[in-house]
Specification:
Blueprint lengths: L14 E3 H11 L6 H9 L8 H14 L4 H8 L4 H25 L9 E4 L5 E3 L8 H4 L13 H5 L9 H15 L1 H8 L1 H4 L4 H4 L23 H14 L2 E2 L4 E2 L2 H13 L1 H4 L11
Antiparallel strand pairs: 1-2, 2-3, 4-5
Helix pairs in contact: 2-3, 5-8, 8-13
């Protein structure tokens, strides 16, 4: 960012969003891109207004009817040889595991298929749109995200035979261990957000306004620490020490990773996400 309202963006070559890849794949095979959503609407008219138990029932019924193998087929069918397919699948798993753990620590939300790209040549996943960091999406009033990262059925089926229980989990353990061993370095970098004037507009909790509703600028030269940012820093610190919000206990690396995977794959969490997040995918 260059200012609160401007910045620079880069172009990522030979990469497409997961949404575009899946959409093209389904259209090529004469399948409706929004198949799961239409099935959901067929079972009930107002899915979003259903109580939790009924949402779970409808969600699981839609999953039982559909296969969710689109992403796995895309990786396989677009690879010129078995060796290339194996390499792309490995890169996909590794990059997904890395961003799952890093995204959790940073509280990165809004991970719908249009915010995750795939490199067509390597299979690596590239995340974009970091506008909802520091658990903003989990704390919002409407459609709060209950999952720490995206690990839907379609993401799992694109992995190896063992699914999430092989390379993915082992890589998550390794990445989390590295992050926790470098806790001080990570917190030192994130501490700059406490004093960064470019992000106060997003993280600030309370501020004075004039008669026209505009924010009153501080006239003294004393640095005003953003209270919200300090709270966020403490939350990141807890994550890096293995604190689990559900059990309210400090976990070791392996148990912390298992707890996060369980949250990310839980039907009761996925079914509460808004349709645009594509939880069926």
């Amino acid at each position: 960012p260059l200012s609160p309202h401007s910045g620079l963006s880069g172009w990522r070559p030979h990469s497409d969003t997961l949404h575009l890849l899946i959409k093209e794949h389904r259209e090529r095979n004469k399948v409706t891109p929004t198949l799961e959503t239409k099935l959901c609407q067929k079972f009930c008219f107002c899915y979003e207004k259903l109580p939790l138990m009924m949402k779970i029932e409808v969600f699981e019924e839609v999953l039982n009817i559909t296969t969710g193998e689109d992403l796995a087929l895309i990786l396989y069918q677009r690879s010129p040889s078995a060796e290339v397919w194996f390499e792309r699948r490995k890169n996909y798993i590794l990059s997904h595991a890395v961003m799952s753990m890093v995204g959790y620590i940073l509280g990165l939300g809004d991970r719908h298929p249009s915010n995750i790209m795939m490199d067509r040549k390597t299979g690596n996943l590239i995340h974009c749109d970091f506008g909802e960091c520091f658990d903003v999406s989990r704390d919002r009033e409407k459609y709060p995200e209950k999952v720490p990262f995206r690990l839907t059925r379609m993401m799992q089926k694109a992995m190896e035979v063992t699914g999430i229980h092989g390379t993915y989990t082992m890589t998550c353990n390794d990445v989390m261990e590295v992050l926790r061993n470098n806790e001080n370095s990570i917190l030192a970098v994130l501490e700059t957000f406490v004093y960064d004037p470019l992000i106060n507009w997003r993280l600030v909790e309370d501020y004075e306004v004039d008669g026209h509703g505009r924010q009153i600028q501080e006239r003294n030269n004393e640095t005003k620490i953003n209270k919200k940012a300090v709270e966020i820093l403490e939350k990141v610190k807890k994550k890096l020490t293995g604190f689990d919000d559900i059990t309210e206990k400090y976990l070791d690396v392996e148990n912390q990773v298992q707890s996060l995977i369980k949250q990310a794959t839980a039907t009761e969490n996925l079914c509460q996400l808004y349709m645009g997040w594509c939880p069926f995918w």
